[in-house]
Design brief:
Blueprint: H1 10-18, E1 35-36, E2 41-44, H2 49-52, H3 57-60, E3 64-74, E4 77-86, H4 89-99, E5 112-116, E6 119-124, E7 127-134, H5 141-152, H6 163-167, E8 173-181, E9 194-199, E10 202-208, H7 212-226, E11 229-230, E12 236-242, E13 246-253, E14 256-261, H8 267-279
Antiparallel strand pairs: 1-3, 2-3, 3-4, 4-7, 5-6, 6-7, 8-9, 9-10, 10-14, 11-12, 12-13, 13-14
Length: about 280
C-alpha cells in the first residue's frame, strides 16, 4: 500500500467536502494507487438506518442533517470515509463526544480528534468525520492521522469547542468525560440538551433554557421534586439529597440551570460548583 499518496489527496478531499453542499461525489482515482469500490453514499435522516444497522438513532438525536461517503481501495486495504453534516457546531461536537473513547487520548485535529489502529474521527464546524480502515489486522494509525489532518485543513468551520465545554473548572476534571446529552439529562425529561462532566467529587452539569423565565420555572420544578435547603449561589440555588443522585446542588444563573450530583462531602465540590457558576456569562 502506498500510504504516501494520502498526503497528496487534497483534490480528492476537496471533492469530498463539496458533496456536503450538493457538488459532485468524491472520487478515489484522484489519489495515485486508489480506486473506488462501490458507489458513493448519500444518506439523510429518512434512510440513515439503512446504513447504520440500528445505530442511526445515535446520530439523529444530535441533529443529523446528511451524510456523504465513499470507499476507496489500494491493494487489499480499504478506507471508508463518512462526513456527517449536523444542524450546528454544537450538534457536531455532541455526536463526536458520544463516539469518542474516553480511554484514548485526543488529538489536535479540528476541534478535537481521536485515532485508534483501525479508525479515526474528528469534528470541525458542523462536520463530524469518521474513517475506518481494513484489514483489521494492520495498524493504520499513521496513515489515518495523515489523512485526517489533510482533510481538516480543507473543511470550513470553527476549531473551538462549544462555550459550555470551557466553563467546567479544570481542577479534578476528567476532561474526556464531557458530554452533550441531547435529552433527559440526569434522567429528567424536562432537562433537555445539557452538558455533563465527571469530577473526582461527583458530576457537574449545565443546561441552557429558552429564557430566564423558563429557567426560573425549571428551578421551581426541581425544588418541588427534590426539596432541600436554599444556598447562596448565582441567582438562586438549593441543595438536597436524592435516593439516586445523592447529595446535589442546583443553581440558576440567568437562563442557565447547572449544578452537581452524586457529590462527595467536603469543600472541593462546593468550590468547584462555585467556579462553574462564576464561569457562566
Amino acid at each position: 500500500m502506498k500510504y504516501g499518496a494520502v498526503a497528496v489527496a487534497v483534490g480528492w478531499i476537496t471533492s469530498a467536502i463539496g458533496t456536503a453542499s450538493g457538488a459532485a461525489p468524491p472520487r478515489c482515482d484522484v489519489v495515485v494507487g486508489w480506486t473506488q469500490s462501490g458507489p458513493a453514499r448519500t444518506y439523510t435522516a429518512d434512510n440513515l438506518y439503512d446504513y447504520m444497522d440500528g445505530n442511526s438513532e445515535g446520530y439523529l438525536i444530535y441533529g443529523f442533517h446528511e451524510m456523504r461517503g465513499i470507499t476507496c481501495k489500494s491493494g487489499e486495504v480499504s478506507f471508508v470515509l463518512d462526513i456527517s453534516e449536523m444542524t450546528d457546531a454544537e450538534a457536531a461536537y455532541g455526536l463526536y463526544a458520544s463516539n469518542r473513547d474516553p480511554r484514548v487520548p485526543v488529538e489536535s485535529i479540528g476541534i478535537s480528534g481521536q485515532i485508534v489502529p483501525q479508525r479515526g474521527i474528528f469534528v470541525k464546524g458542523t462536520s463530524f468525520v469518521e474513517i475506518s480502515a481494513s484489514p483489521p489486522s494492520v495498524d493504520h494509525s499513521a496513515a489515518l492521522r495523515t489523512f485526517l489532518k489533510a482533510l481538516e485543513g480543507c473543511l470550513e468551520g470553527t476549531t473551538s469547542p462549544p462555550a459550555a465545554v470551557t466553563w467546567f473548572p479544570k481542577e479534578a476534571l476528567d476532561g474526556a468525560s464531557i458530554r452533550l446529552i441531547p435529552q433527559s439529562l440526569l434522567g429528567i425529561s424536562w432537562l433537555k440538551k445539557g452538558y455533563i462532566a465527571k469530577y473526582d467529587y461527583g458530576r457537574a452539569f449545565v443546561v441552557r433554557q429558552e429564557s430566564v423565565e423558563v429557567a426560573a420555572r425549571v428551578m421551581q420544578r426541581l425544588r418541588e421534586r427534590f426539596g432541600g435547603a436554599e444556598v447562596l449561589i448565582a441567582d438562586e440555588g438549593f441543595q438536597a439529597t436524592d435516593r439516586y443522585l445523592g447529595r446535589l446542588w442546583i443553581f440558576r444563573k440567568g437562563a442557565y440551570v447547572g449544578g452537581g450530583v452524586n457529590l462527595g462531602e467536603g469543600a472541593n465540590a462546593d468550590k468547584g460548583l462555585g467556579a462553574l457558576a462564576a464561569a457562566i456569562p
